[in-house]
Structure formats: C-alpha cells, structure tokens
C-alpha cells in the first residue's frame, strides 16, 4: 500500500482524501518513511519535520472528517526548497553562512500552502544560495538523480526535483533565476513551471537576483501544477515586484485541446547545438501536437543571440551585490564554485549592466511581436541530458562542452523576459529524462499548462519511473 501511495500524484490522492478512503496520516507516514529510506541514496532533504508533519496530518484528518475540506492540497505532504522562509524554523539556503538563520515570518507561498492544508514534511537541499545547476553542495553533500544516482539532479532546485521524482515529497516548490525550476524538472522527469514575473509573490524567499527570480511548482503532473498555481498565485503588497492582475482558475482550464493552436519554433537559437536524441524527442512531441490539430510557424527573434550575455551580466551583478558584505568579511565560508561567481560579479561595470537591460528590453519586444503570430513557443528545456556528478563538462553529440554554459542556454531567456515557461517530460534518452519547454506570453500560464497537458496525455514517458520509486 505504501509503495502505491508514494507513486501517486496529487490529482490521484486528493479525491481519496476528500472521500475518506485515504487518511492523510497514512499518506504522510508513507512519504516520511520513504524520505528517510532514500535520504542516504538521494540526499534530497536538509531537514525532516517528522513529529510536526504527523501532528499536522492528524489535524487535517480531523478537519476533513468534520466536513471542512479545503481543496486539492488539503492533507498532501510535501517539502519545500530551503530558501523559502518558515517562521521560527532554520532556513539555510544550503549554505554555511546561514546555517543557523531563523526567519521571523513565513514566506507568502508558505502561508498560502499552509492555509490550503498542506502538510510540511521538511526542507529540501539546493545548490548553495541557488547559484548553480548541479546541486553538488560542498557543505551538505551532493543530491543524486533518482534515475541514475551517479548523475546530477539539476539545480538549483535539485532537492525539489529529486524528492518529487523519487516520491519523498508528493509535490514541491522551486525557485528559478536562470532555469532553476525547469532544469531539475527536465533532468528528473517531472513538471516544472516558472510563472510570469510578478504572478507569484517572492516575499520570504532569499534572493539570488531580484529582477530574475521566480517561484513556481514542481510536480508529478500538469494538473498538480495547475492546482498549486491556484493556491500560490496573486498580488502581494509585501513583494514590490508583484503584479496586481486577475488570477486564472488554472485547474478548471485544463482541457488539452490544441486544435488550431499555433506553435512557434525558433530554429536559430532553441534548436542550435542540441543533442541529436534530445532534438528528435522534442520534435516528436511537437509532431504529436500537430497530429491533434496544431500548426507550426517558424519565428525569428534576433536578440536571442545576446541573451546569454545579458542574463549573465544581470545575474552576476545582482547576486554579487546581495552577497558583497559577506564576500568582504568571510569569503572562505562560500563554496569554491559560487565564490568564484561572486568574484566575477564584481567585474561588470554600470555600463555593462545597463547595456544588458537594453538587450533585455529589446528581447521582450521581439517575444511580444512573436506572440502576436503564435500562441506558444516550444523548444528543448535543455540541449543535453544529466551529467555525471563532479563533472564540469557534459557530452553533446560526442564532444565535451562546458556544463553551465550549455545547461542554461534555453532556460535563461524566459528569466530575462519574465515570460512563463513550463518544462514537461517529453521522453527518455536511454534511462535519462528529456524535458520539452513551452513558453507563453505574459500571464498565459493557463495556456502553456494546457499545451503541457496535451503532451502529457500522449504518455511520452511510457509510464516509466525511477527504479527507486517503483521498488520502494
């Protein structure tokens, strides 16, 4: 029974909890047991809140029996990335410097999930200060990919990706500054949504780069992500970047109907220097949508050629400003990889930063023009599959190429533009997952989730799951 429970999605579990045939206590115990059993092999958790989670589960069960069911996520056990503040709980950012940091408030997303009846099972590991894509953490150890424990889970939300994939959290939240939701979602074979900038409050999330940061769902299915977006979306006056615009009913709008959908494909950037099998898998998914009535149009976005430079200058400068004081006072307490990045971030001039913002503005305009002709754009989430833990390079069609440069190439532009972008599992190269990225116009999360659902319904993963999950 426990083995079956940890494999289920929220959309499968919620009706069972609502009708009383599944106890949140039994579900929480199964997830906690599995989290503890897989901690040595996967290392997804920073901290497990066993006693509190079991108490919350008992309270949820009592409420539901009394007819006070709060909705889809009531009684669902999940852990969150350790840069999201929990009031009076240590929040480390998986760093040495903040190893004893205790926030005074919950993050807004934490408060909203708490109000929805979520049972928090703990905090999940991340790349130190969210500034990396491997989750090979020098202070707390590497998080491992459930599909192949020699491989990275992606980052910076690697603990979230690995935990959802292996079943030690039913769903999770990640943060995304250059791809940190979509990278681990692609690599771990789950759904990851970076919403439009300003759609989900960032209050109570430790920043990496103010103008690029986002918070979003990492889940087993599209409907799980849509249901979570219904909870966490909305204006928050505590977040100066929050946008006051109406919230869609995301879950209600999931139909999977792509008849007459116009898909934009940008060959020059998003399909350049891509692993051959990844390329084939993504195009096969596009063809599956065409078979359902969608159309494809080639789109041209010239400023994409400068996107990597603009993303790098912006993120380096903003991140280094945030950590400037600690770099002066205690540089030895940073991991070697991120210390080097913070040092690099001191180098761009004000002219460089402002020129990057000009590229950014132009890129936004060109995407806006493209979305007057197409409904969504589809691309690989990543040009490669997961690399081996500890490697700085990754195989790309027989050549070893720089890991970081290549792995953020296709995700970074949506952080610069602030546009919503979704990674949905598209298939496997050998035993390693491949993500399909769907990008939409501003605040069109419902649209890209619907396209993702149409892909999901074709079962591109052929029901395959990590062995650590199925033999639990």
UniProtKB/TrEMBL annotation:
All residue ranges annotated as the Amidase domain in the record: 26-449
Transmembrane segment boundaries: none
UniProt entry tagged with the keyword Transferase: yes
Keywords recorded for this protein, A-Z: Transferase
Residues spanning the signal sequence: none
UniProt-recorded Gene Ontology molecular function terms: transferase activity
RNA-binding recorded as keyword: no
InterPro entries with a match to the protein in the record: Amidase, Amidase_CS, Amidase_dom, AS_sf
Family classification: Belongs to the amidase family.
Protein known as: Aspartyl-tRNA(Asn)/glutamyl-tRNA(Gln) amidotransferase subunit A
Annotated organism of origin: Sporosarcina newyorkensis
Source taxonomy: Bacteria, Bacillati, Bacillota, Bacilli, Bacillales
């Amino acid at each position: 029974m426990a083995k079956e429970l940890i494999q289920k999605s929220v959309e499968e579990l919620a009706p069972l909890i609502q009708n009383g045939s599944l106890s949140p206590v039994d579900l929480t115990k199964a997830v906690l047991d599995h989290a503890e059993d897989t901690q040595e092999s996967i290392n997804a958790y920073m901290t497990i809140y066993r006693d509190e989670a079991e108490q919350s589960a008992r309270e949820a069960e009592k409420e539901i029996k009394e007819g006070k069911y709060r909705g889809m996520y009531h009684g669902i056990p999940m852990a969150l990335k350790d840069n999201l503040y929990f009031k009076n709980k240590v929040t480390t950012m998986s760093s040495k410097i903040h190893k004893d940091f205790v926030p005074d408030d919950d993050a807004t997303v934490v408060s909203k999930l708490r109000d929805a009846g979520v049972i928090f099972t703990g905090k999940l590991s991340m790349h130190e200060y969210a500034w990396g894509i491997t989750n090979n953490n020098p202070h707390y150890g590497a998080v491992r990919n459930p599909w192949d424990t020699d491989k990275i889970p992606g980052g910076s939300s690697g603990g979230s990706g690995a935990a959802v994939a292996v079943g030690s959290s039913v769903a999770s939240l990640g943060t995304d500054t250059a791809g940190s939701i979509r990278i681990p979602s692609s690599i771990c074979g789950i759904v990851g949504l970076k919403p439009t900038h300003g759609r989900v409050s960032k209050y109570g999330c430790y920043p990496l780069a103010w103008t690029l940061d986002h918070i979003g769902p990492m889940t087993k299915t599209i409907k799980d992500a849509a249901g979570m977006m219904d909870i966490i979306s909305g204006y928050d006056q505590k977040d100066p970047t929050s946008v006051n615009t109406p919230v869609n009913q995301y879950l209600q709008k999931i139909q999977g109907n792509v008849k007459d959908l116009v898909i934009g494909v940008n060959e020059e950037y998003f399909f350049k220097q891509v692993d051959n099998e990844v390329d084939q898998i993504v195009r096969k998914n596009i063809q599956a949508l065409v078979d359902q009535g969608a159309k494809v149009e080639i789109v041209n976005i010239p400023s994409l050629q400068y996107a990597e430079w603009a993303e790098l200058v912006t993120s380096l400068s903003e991140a280094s400003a945030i950590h400037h004081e600690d770099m002066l006072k205690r540089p030895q307490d940073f991991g070697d990889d991120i210390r080097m990045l913070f040092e690099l971030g001191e180098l761009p001039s004000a002219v460089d930063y402002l020129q990057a913002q000009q590229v950014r503005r132009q890129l936004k305009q060109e995407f806006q023009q493209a979305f007057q002709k197409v409904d969504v754009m589809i691309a690989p989430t990543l040009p490669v599959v997961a690399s081996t833990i500890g490697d700085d390079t990754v195989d790309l069609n027989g050549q070893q190429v720089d890991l970081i440069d290549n792995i953020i190439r296709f995700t970074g532009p949506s952080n610069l533009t602030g546009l919503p972008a979704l990674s949905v599992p598209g298939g496997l190269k050998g035993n390693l997952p491949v993500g399909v990225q769907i990008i939409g116009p501003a605040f069109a999360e419902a649209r890209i989730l619907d396209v993702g659902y149409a892909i999901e319904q074709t079962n591109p993963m052929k029901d395959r799951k990590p062995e650590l999950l199925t033999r639990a």
